[in-house]
Specification:
By secondary structure, the chain is mostly helical. Helix content is about 70%, strand content about 0%. The chain has one domain (about 15-30, about 45-90). Helix 1 packs antiparallel against helix 3, helix 1 runs parallel beside helix 4 and helix 3 runs antiparallel to helix 4.
């Protein structure tokens, strides 16, 4: 008889979620340091942190980590206003 432990996957850390959250932060910092220089492709690059945060939330949902799912989604979405705020502080209105 095989015993099935329903809690077997619960102790796994959401490493993929952390990686997507970190990559969203790296892209946000990259946007800060590189700048746009009038390139229209840069506008699409602004959506990358939110997309990465939502992908990380999806990976957390697959591993049944609701706290990390919410944190990753909010992290990715919050990086965009944070980026705009920092750019305004550095370069002025």
């Amino acid at each position: 008889m095989t015993l099935i432990n329903p809690q077997a996957g619960k102790h796994e850390q959401p490493i993929a979620t952390w990686a997507f959250m970190a990559s969203g932060l790296v892209i946000t910092l990259l946007i800060l340091f590189v700048g746009s220089d009038g390139n229209p492709l840069f506008s699409w690059f602004l959506a990358a942190p939110a997309v990465l945060g939502l992908i990380g939330a999806w990976f957390a949902a697959r591993k049944d980590h609701p706290g990390w799912m919410i944190a990753s989604g909010l992290w990715g979405i919050a990086l965009i206003p944070a980026l705009i705020f920092i750019i305004t502080l550095l370069e002025g209105p």
